[in-house]
Amino acid sequence: MTAHAPVLDVSDLHVSYGDLAILCGVTFSVGRGEGVVLLGANGSGKSTLLRAINGLAPATRGQVSLDGVPIIGARRATLRQARRQMGYVFQQFNLVPQLSAFQNVLFGVMGQRPLGILNCLGPVARSEDRERAMHCLDRVGLADRASHRPTELSGGQQQRVAIARMLMQQPSMVVADEPIASLDPKAGREVLDLLWRIVDDEGLSMLCTLHQLDLAREYGDRVIGLKAGKVLIDAAMDKIDTASLDTLYEGATPPEDAAHSSTAAA
Amino acid sequence: MSDQTPTIPRFRSPSPIAWILAVAFLAFFLQGLWAADMSLDRLQRGALNLARFLGQAMPPDFSNWYGIADAMWETLNIAIVGVTFGCLFSIPLAILAASNTSPNWVVRTIARLVIAVSRTIPDLIWALIFVVAVGLGPLAGILAIIMDTIGFAARFYSERFEEVQKGPSEALTSTGAGRLSVIMGGILPESFASMTATSLFSVEKAIRSAVTLGLVGAGGIGVELSTAMRLFRYDDAAAIILVVLVAVIGFEQLSSSIRKRVI
Fold it and tell me: Which residues, other chains included, contact B2 with Cβ-Cβ below 8 Å and sequence gap of 6+?
């Protein structure tokens, strides 16, 4: 595979729930090591797009390929193989509340070990996995909280544990669904700093939805704007002005010609 | 409020269906009362018989204490062994029956049917069936308790699984983990406290059931009780009933204190 081959390739992706069309033909790709911010108003389909990329939401049409492997309509084993390459960071952290931070991080390799959970429970996991889980917690600055349950941690700390779980997975691509939307501004910035630093250090590709335009400008190399289930903007971050980004949040549904007035692809 | 808007009426006539149900209920109730042949005379005689029974039952006769203790021990054996297997079998059955963990609707429907059948058939009838199958004795009691526990525990386990928040299991799914791993890592830990409480309730229920199972010959203290009653040895019977009372209340206390600690 060449250096320019995209890690993630989304083409003509349609997702609908019953009669309600959420995504209506989304096409874009993310290159290796590229950091893309996904913007869009509430209900524009950002979360659904990320879920469909991971196969959590069923697509009605179109294709998603990860490292050249198509995953829509793929066999279960292929889909699981693709998921292993993709770290997912959720808005609500989604840690298992009854288990320690350490155990939650160990679960990152659940998909990669034979027998799944039986090989990544604290007492029976391989020594190298246990050491790496501690190392991942250390990278997010929470090694001293390894035995704490999520409920004993602050929101920012919980999201850092979730990032450690993602790191444990050793993915080639990270998908983050509003990773800081549940956090206060200060904790949010710290978490976003950490997430983006880890993504850079590991040379991972990143697709991250955000609500704050200023943060999007600061962190993203490229911006994709979604409006009413379609890609309205796809441009390098430094080539786009705030006015165009604002159009993403205007009106409930765009007029038919709105797509043509937006900035061209990068 | 504008003048045109009429006030909501104080009373509203119930719907015709509600009328029909009310009348049908009343008719059935009165017919039942009449069929039971309730008369003052019979109630009076009943009260006298009860007084005579109590008179003969007091004081309770504990002279056969060894036999009673032995039978009570067997009852506890039946309850604990039965409920342990019942709860263990309930876990996979509940996973197959819960809408968010079941592999498909065919399996789910079958699992729900199995649970519903074990719940709807009362424990005494299970005991009668198993006495026929494996003969008199504690084994029939254990099998009956297993079926009774499945009907109760599997249902509550599966309802609990369905209430578990989706997020953590979705996060584990997104790492490429298999279904069973996701269930064990994301759903079971969240259900654990509730499952413990349900299991303890099952034990309480099982001890109460195990007492009566002996009445149909499925082992335990019920055998002693039914013998004492048939031979009109009411003082022996009173001793047995007291022992049962103490055992059941004692265990309920124990189990509720464990439950408080877990939840």
Answer: none
Cβ-nearest to B167 among A82, A92, A112? A92
The SS3 assignment for A87 reads strand
pTM listed for this prediction: 0.79
CATH number at residue B235: 1.10.3720.10
- Domain membership of residue B33 (yes or no) is no
Nearest-neighbour CA in chain B from A133: distance (Å): 15
A56 in B contact zone (CB under 8 Å): yes
Look-up: residue for tokens 């959590």? A56
Class level of CATH domain A8-85+171-261: alpha beta
Residues B50-64: tens digit of each pLDDT: 888 888 878 887 788
pLDDT at B156: 93
Domain span holding position B112: 66-262
Residue of B nearest to A94 (CA): B168
Nearest to A107 among B172, B180, B193 (CB): B172
Query: Which three-class secondary structure state does DSSP give residue B32?
Result: helix
Which residue out of A75, A83, A93, A94 would a mutagenesis test of the B interface target, given it has the greatest number of B Cβ atoms within 10 Å? A94
Report which of A167, A172, A92 is spatially closest to residue A133, judged by C-alpha positions.
Answer: A167
Q: What is the spatial distance between Cα B202 and Cα B191, in angstroms, rounded to a whole number?
A: 16
Number of folded domains that form chain B: 1
pLDDT of residue A2: 43
